[in-house]
Structures
1.
Amino acid sequence: MAEKLKKVLVFDSNKCTGCRTCELTCSMGHFEELNHRKSYFKILKHKERDLNIAAPGIKCDYCEECIRWYLPGAIKFMALEEVYVSSKDKI
């Protein structure tokens, strides 16, 4: 459980096309079935701002299956320490 808390989702909204491939790979990895509804990872659509937002669900176990076939760099899980160092470099 402690390992989960050390990872965070890093998402580039400029690269996400909203194809929901991440959802399909998640469901395939966990249930061996292509089914968006069974995915632990969701793409939420913000219609007013025309944005796709990547969101791991409560059941997400951070296995990173969702990024296996996804557009490189659009979503990734990083160690909390890496995110902190990366954001500090940008300030």
2.
Amino acid sequence: MIRWRRFFADRQNWLGLIIVGLFIIAAVTAPWLAPQPDDGEPSPFKVVGQRLDRAPNPPSAEHPLGTVPQINLLPRFGIAPGQDASYQWDVYHTLIWGTRSALRFGIVVTLVTAAVGVLVGAVSGYAGGAVNGLMMRMTDAFLVFPPIAAVWLFNRLLFTRVLAPFVELPELSWWENVLYQLEIDPVMLALIAFSWMPYARIINANVSWLKQEEYVLAARSIGAAGPRILFRHLLPNAITPAVVLAARDVGGLVILATAFIFIGIGGNVAWGILLVGARDYIIGIGGNPLSHWWVFLPVSLALTLFGIGWNLLGDGLNTVLNPRARR
């Protein structure tokens, strides 16, 4: 209890909790904050009126944060590919509903990568010797592989073409259909496959050190099995840094995925897809971020706050769970 009193005594930790809590509330209450059209399927993108010159509409009473010209999307977003591109998207609607895809992406990828990294690090650290050396060298090999190359590799290995969420896809193979039915895309798979290494190294170092402690030696002396020692005694005492790292990674992974979407690699985070629709009005020929501020500023602020909130929460958990930080 004293630890958590210290956590709630810090204003910075409260700020992180409030920011993350507001995003969670927005995701849960999205149907009330931004109602879906009566005749449309649930989607983070609300299609509004046409404009032949494809210029974004400024904020108004009907659209508080303005609109952005629509780009073609896959059917899973409730918008048919090939729909007239002169339609617009409501920025406020995507900002609210995008919290769901951001939280889902960040939490799912973080949980899976943390689980893989913790398992690899714990097993290798407890085994020691040649097994530990081999698994850690494998971890080092994954560390030097750049994430952007991993995304390209997964696109090529798992799909017949490089798939972006704003490209019309007339036909999908059975494998591609399965992945998209599960809302899994190459960016998510690549980040899972190439983000577990920090967890493995942290847990490996902790387990390698803790297995020499007296309570572990005592458990061995009474004949406790290796898996029981590892998962009952070692892992609960070694996992604290991984929990802190996971809290910080949720926001960072969403920002990284959004960057991949923005440069055209692909992805499934609604905020990033909205920024693609606004790209020509930020950096394109004739683009002016000052005169078209609403096409990028609300989403950019949401991404910034999302990353800051999770980082502050991770720092707060570090002060509670890390004895050195408490001192």
3.
Amino acid sequence: MTGEAHRPQASVAALVALGIGSMVGAGIFALLGEAARLAGAAVWLSFLAAGVIAMLTGHSFVRLAVRYPSRGGLVEYLVQAYGAGTFSGGCSILFYISQLIGMAMISLAFGKFSARLLDLQADLPFWERILACSLIVVLSSLQLAGSRLVSVAQRVIVLVNLAALTVFAVALTRYVEADRLQVATWPEPSSVLGSLSLTFMAFTGFAVISNAAERVRDPVRDLPRAMYLSIGAVTVLYVSLALVVAGTVDADTLRSSGATLIASATRAHLGEAGFYLLLVVAVAATVTCLNGGLFGVTGVTYTLAEKGQLPSRFKADLGATTRGLTISAAIAIIMVNFFDLSTVASLGAATSLMVYALVNVAALRLVDDGGLSRVAIYLSIAACVLAILVWAIYTYQTKPQSLVVFLAFLAISFVAESALQRGAKRRILPQVSESAGKAGDASQAPGV
């Protein structure tokens, strides 16, 4: 990549802004209503459990990022842990697919919020998709042109979003009715567990922090701070808002409002001005979230292409970025027009959980810190596997077509990787960093 050696170093504040911005837009705005449809008044508990899983998995990402700093992040960790072959390549492509699904989900959420903000009542689904596709095109174009507009504004917007959500949460607290939150009002445990994959999807943006490991002055100190601060702040935000919203609306509104649940709760108690102001905040949050997603997916595609896991055209220079950005944007636009918000959220959660479980296993193989660190990795593996099983069982019972699509994505990942390796005849090579080299030759990691 042109100018790689002259990239500015990322501060902890910048990484925290990137991490929070990559989570909040795809989280509390887009998924609270979808998760509440299943978990009801217990949705706050689902967000808390998802936050714990994210924190444990974030620990694995940090340990791996310190040892193997790479702009490809997760992709590099899979190759280091599982060797150069079809398994690590297929898993990497599955992760790439999950990133694309996440971009589609964020864009669809933007379409829903902005369509209501513009009061486009006629043919609403059409306008939601048009607006969603437009956001992908605009942000991709800005990155292609090398514009610093969104990057510079991102930190400010994240702070404004957090401040606005805090103000709304405090303002709505006076309308909370404790009876709405009682355990007696909670649905069956299976429904609460079924919502866990959706609430975890609200956190998946944290992985983008590890992609910036090469641009951190002191990764041993700064990466853990950025990761834990980001996930911790977002967990507190999600749980607090889930409690407030669940305590201020009736059960029917809680289960039927979907992506606009927070805005609906605000309208009921703070009027039209509060409703439209919150929609503005939601739109801004999805913009920063997608911007972070585009940053992450560009690094992922570059690394995959560099290792031979994607065609070399993905890493070709194109303006201020690579062709992987434009290809990814095009695929995300296709997904926007074929899936709805709840479907992409469910599929994104399943693919992310599966790949994150493999990253946790990779941390167990490659990072031998011992003590509490090792215990945390074991717990993260168990939590991810349990969440995947719960998702599979619940989805099979309630929406089996989503399970079929997920299995199709799984098959496509490994078939495509196998075909690419045979056709291109390129061997996947791990990047042995200086820190990795000191710990031993990780290129000899066992294959699967």
4.
Amino acid sequence: MRPLEKIYWLRLALGLFAALVCIVYGLVTGSITSDFSQGFVFGSFFNGTSIALIIYLFSYYIIKAKLGASVEKPQKIMTTGIGIYLLSWIVFWVLLYTIIAGPISPPPA
């Protein structure tokens, strides 16, 4: 497998990991709740976005140290897989958030 393909699939896995970290952070801080009477909490969105960006930037430096010599253009390390990272992060984050904080329906009467 070529280095850019490795980076692409690694970013997919990191998007899933970032979504899990966002969910765990939301559970620990109590920002994930099924009480939507106060509306959407923008703090949890901004915290999740910050966590995802930090993980992406952290992965850039690790990948650059490990695979930097085998990639022909160093700037390709930053841009390869950014779309799949963001897409996988937001899809898995929304999915997990919905499962955890979704409304609990009462049992049928």
